[in-house]
Amino acid sequence: MQLESFNVQGFRSLSSVSGIPVLSPTIITGHNDGGKSATLTAAGFLLGANDATENDLTFSIAEDGSASRTERETEVCVEGTFILSDAERAELGLPAHVRIRRTFSPEVGSKLEIYREVPEDARLRELPKLRVPELKALNAEFGLDVRGLRADLLKRLEEYAARGPKVLEWVQVEPTVKRRMPQFLYFGGLIPDADETIRAALHSRYRTHLQDENLQGRISELENTLSEKLRGDAEDLCTHVRERCPDLIGAEVRPEVSFQAGLKRTELILSQVEGEDVSLASTGSGRARRVALAVWEWTNDILRQQEEAHTTEETKDDSPNLLVAYDEPDTHLDYVHQRRVMDLIRSQCKLSHIQVLVATHSLNLIDGVDISNIVHLRLLEQRTSMERLEDAGDPDIHLGNIASALGVRNSVLLHERCFVGVEGPTEQQVLPLLFRLSEQMHLQSAGIALWACNNNEGALHFTRFLLKHGRTAMLAVDADSKTRPRGLFTPDKLARFGIDPGKDVTWLGNPNEIEELFSGEQWAKAANLLWKRVDGASWKASDFNQLRNEKKFSQKVFDMVRERSQAAPGGKPEMLYQLAKTLQCPEDVPLQLRQLFASLIKLAND
């Protein structure tokens, strides 16, 4: 069973946030105090890893729209949509998708419920909890046979309930369903969480060991023995209560023993010099985070071993599903260690039974996933709202919004792996689209930052700065830029800025402009789709190829389309962008551009 998405109501600043996706990974970003950590905690609450308290209840909103300083909402509710495997559906008798919620209120406490089909008659629900006299009474009431053992009585009622009318309602989650819910593993970003990181990692292994078939029999036997002994003690207690409180009709305690909550405490002791032992909590923040990173990597190795141990058809559904949550995992880590964190998360996401939530400010982490994996949280009137950064056709716009919201524009300069300066708006709009078609990922997912020079000498200053500081940077401009009088990209001017025209610049065109790289057939196809001629004739490849010998091919094409079509684009950048959108497969991208993209990816990964 895996968590697909979840909704949160009444939990801290998350007054009402719906549709939070759980992917591999989901990156959660936004302003400080915007609800990132609360989102992780809410996911843990749903999966039973932590409890809610009265202090977690959202402050109420008054009629005038202001937040109350004293009144709180009455309930926390975190509801998840879960996906079940075929084996789980067969075992549990549930559909492929189920809704499960955990609620908390000060009066009732915590409840775990599932929205499912149940008998319309409430008496036929939760039958396994009934005692023999109660089962006999129900059998008699429904005209069923009252003979036999408890199992016989229960079976008759369950079969009767299965034949009767059903309704969809929230009911208590059965233990068999609860056991199939994902485990939650939390790694925090605060220094006091360093020891907790170790405890969480070992506790996950502890729970796995408890499921070992070689241990389950002995553990169950010991649990039952202790439960029986405690029941004897409890009976003495109840007798005493009944004696002291004669107004009570009955008093009963049903003690149950479980080893599930074991592993009370762990502590890591470090030493650099023999005899000088120091607890992890007493070390510096940087060392504590590096130790935590090592623990995460060890956990990742264990998770991979679990995956490999459950690769056969017979055992793959036995692998416990796990939701791993990282809260600011890059805090107090240098850039090299931040890259290790990202590699670790990517490695975990490749495991079929692992899902990952990451709360972070790091653009390095944000850029490392597809834009659709990013959740942007922000506070509006002290309440968290969520923005899904879906692919809207121009991925750079989304990344710019994130950087602006975080106020970490310098992090783009510090953390990106490859910087590419292009000539102007045409390349700035078209290259991201063509790169995604060619390489099946966004520019930012590959760690490539793109900016338009727009005939601004500041762009050359920026390029010189990057190269001087050992960063990977290059320019990609039209080949005819080399010969333009007083142009920005003449070899002499580039050399004055420390830019090697042969090494640091890719000259685009065949021979002069990027527009020339597209075939006459591609131009004609786009024109017939988008810019139909006023005379009703069809565009032909020859209409465009005859212009290739002109001094400025792009301008001649634009003028021709404007002259012969009422649906002509508003400018050359729009014209090439519309052409690029008609391309359908990587091979449609001109070879020169595919070679450029391949070299950029190589530079970004070196």
UniProtKB/TrEMBL annotation:
One Pfam family cited in the UniProt record for this chain: SAP
The keyword rRNA processing appears for this protein: no
Keywords: Endonuclease, Hydrolase, Nuclease
InterPro entries in alphabetical order: AAA_GajA/Old/RecF-like (IPR041685), Bact_Antivir_Def_Nuclease (IPR051396), P-loop_NTPase (IPR027417), SAP_dom (IPR003034), SAP_dom_sf (IPR036361)
Keyword Membrane recorded: no
Superkingdom in the source lineage: Bacteria
GO MF assignments: endonuclease activity
Protein name per Swiss-Prot or TrEMBL: Putative ATP-dependent endonuclease of OLD family
UniProt organism field: Actinomadura pelletieri DSM 43383
